[in-house]
Amino acid sequence: MTSEPEPEPDPDAEPLLTATDLSVGYGGEPVCAPVSLAMLPGTAVGLVGPNGAGKSTVLQTMVGLLPALAGTVTFAGQPVDERSAEFRRAVAGVLDDDAFFPSLTGAEHLLLTARAHGVADAEQVVADELATFGLTERAGALPSALSSGQRRRLALAGALVRPARLLVLDEPERRLDTAMRRALADRLAQLVAAGATVLFASHDPAFLGTLADAVLVVAEDECRLVEPADAVADLREG
Amino acid sequence: MSVLARTTEEWDGAAVRRFTRRATAARADTRWWTRLGDLTSGLTSAAIAVAVCGGLVSGLREQIAARPPVSSAVLPGGLTATAVAVAVASGSVALFARLGPVSATPGVAAWWLPLPAGRRGLLRGELRRGLLLAVAAAVVVALPVVLAWTRTLGGVLTGLLAGGLLAAGAVGALVVRQAGSGTRWVPAVAGGVGAVALVGPPLLGCLAAAAGARVAWPAAPPLSLPGAGALLGVLLAAAVTAVVVADHRLEELSAGALRASGETVQYATASVLSLDTREIGRALRSPVRRPRRALHWRWVRRAEHAVVAGDLAVLARSPWRWGQLAVGAALPVLTARTQGLGELPALVAGAVVLGWWTAATAVGEPSRRASSAPGADRSLPLAAAVVVRCRAVVPVAVLAVVLGVSALLVGQGTGSPPAWLALGVAAAPAWAGAAVRAGYRPDLDWSGPVVSSPMGALPTGVGATLVRGPDVGVLGTVPVGLALLLGAVPSWLVGASLAWSLVLAAVAVGTAGQRD
């Protein structure tokens, strides 16, 4: 795996991911206020809001897994189409964290992803990723033999074992211990510094404080961008 | 910005499938003697099934031949076989549309679909499986219809091949729709066609019987070899075209829709494997739409009224259930009006049980929901036993109408119509009790010992749990069976039937939810 130092995001750069008056929901019913957002390459935006506010629905709509009720989402200037190979090459996500092939080991899941993405020296990259997530000892175990937290780490490793310009993560801190949360936040911050873009939902103030450049508060009446420090303070106050 | 070097070639769909298959196979027991054992076991099971079915059919044919024809059995067997085949085919189309027909398991959705590999290559195996399943089902369904038309080897083979090709074409067309504007309307239309196919012929038969006429069924037109070849050629071309187009359109299937279908498939499969018929219904039900008009329930004054009002709303907003009630009423009539079947009281009684259980299932939905999610019931200021009793009100009222009409038409030409009507109405409490008893059936008890079965481990007592509900209905239908055997309804039978039915209903409702 290679990482390279990146300069600060260029405010004049073209946004990588843009949502304009995006209305999300099910059966024609919006679950939150419309979202407008423009993410530059090399930035991280966190979504916060209470349970049921619509954070996961916003994330799934932003990556084309759910149809938008209204408004538009573009990726690199093009309307989001998750069926396009180019989009899938560029976007990694962990939205459905507990879904695995029951007959493939953890290492095989990662190897499949790395090889299918054409990653050079895939076996070494997989071994490194397993070590990073503390799964080396359990590499040969089937998902059913892994604990809930180990399955979560495997899913996150799957998003990081392949190249991506955009990472979309739904509550990545969920079911991780404190040390692993901190390590993951630091790892993602490094990726952002290297030019990757991260869109994530979180309830963890420390995670937000480490990673987010901006925070989108998702709510029924209004979705608005706030400074990470304000969002962290709000979350700490409960 | 990529932080990983991508220097080797990406995998295509075939390579991804191959890797997954090999990794799976590495852990599977693929020794030749294991495979031979599996094959032998499968073939033996199939042979036993064929022998049992063949024996039953053969015995039935002898019984039919030995009995004098009944004047009210006016529908030719070919028409009934065709109607049932159309209904089964429609049901299959609805099922395939509900399940995709192409779907992605959660594992596939999470680990395959985000890959840059073409979706066509990834999903081709799914399409192939769907085609094989549909063709196999079509051949089985087409067999009785084809045999009703012709007994020549060439004719039977042509018919079965035509059925298989039609099924392949239908699956291809469904996949094309799935990739386009979706198959949301298909289950409703297919369900409607199936209901009409089962309700229309019995109505026609009753009208013909009332007029003293018999329904004609055309003899099979002679099909020459070139004619059969041309027919099969056209069907083959249509099927191949549909499948090729479907294969190309796999690329356009969205991950969200594939994932949703896959979850439905997984839920339904788990329900089948755990033999939980209630869960199968929940897994396959159509998504509930927002009602156009809000109900105000101004007549609701007491908590008991609220239970009844809720149950009525569930039924009123479920068009599928209305169709199910109509089909449930029609099935016994179809059997009674069909030549060769209507002559056998035991067969008609069997159809009565099947049809009336279908109708009872339609009105058991509120009980099933309350059993799986009892929170709403617990919020009412009523004892649990009172809530369960209230749950029987709507089923009794609805089934009195449905079973009454059904019995009236079954008994056409065999005695007093009001007596048959009353006999059907009298059976309604028992079947309503059956619906409630089945709805509140306790879950299978997995805490005790389990027994090995071809479907995996099952808890002991699974049979007793699964027949909770239908058992009461069958007992409640005994007076109807007696009337069918006698060929008339004695005057004492209606009163006795009502008393018997009320006792059964009281027992069923009183013991609903209790473990045996």
What attributes does this structure have?
heterodimer, A: 238 residues, alpha/beta, six-stranded mixed beta sheet, four-stranded antiparallel beta sheet, 12 strands, 21% strand, B: 516 residues, two-stranded antiparallel sheet
Could you characterize the architecture of this molecule?
The complex is a heterodimer of chains A (238) and B (516). Chain A has 238 residues and is α/β, with parallel strands linked by helices. Helix content of chain A is 34%, strand content 21%. Chain A has helices spanning 55-62, 85-90, 106-116, 122-132, 148-160, 178-193, 205-211, 228-237, and strands spanning 17-23, 25-26, 29-30, 35-39, 44-48, 70-75, 78-79, 91-94, 166-170, 197-201, 214-217, 224-226. Chain A has a 6-stranded mixed β-sheet with strand order 8-9-10-5-11-12, sandwiched between helices. In chain A, strands 4-1-6-7 form a 4-stranded antiparallel β-sheet, with helices on one face. The termini of chain A are far apart. With 516 residues, chain B is mainly alpha-helical. Chain B is built from 22 helices and 2 strands. Chain B has helices spanning 13-27, 32-66, 77-98, 106-111, 119-149, 153-179, 186-210, 225-249, 255-273, 277-284, 303-316, 319-337, 345-363, 365-372, 375-378, 384-390, 393-410, 417-439, 462-466, 470-476, 478-486, 491-510; strands at 450-453, 456-459. Chain B has a two-stranded antiparallel ribbon with strand order 1-2. In chain B, strand 1 and strand 2 form a beta hairpin. In chain B, helix 7 packs parallel to helix 12 (319-337) and helix 9 (255-273) packs antiparallel against helix 10 (277-284). Chain B is globular, with a radius of gyration of 26 Å. At the A-B interface, helix 2, strand 8 and helix 3 of A face helix 1, helix 4 and helix 9 of B.
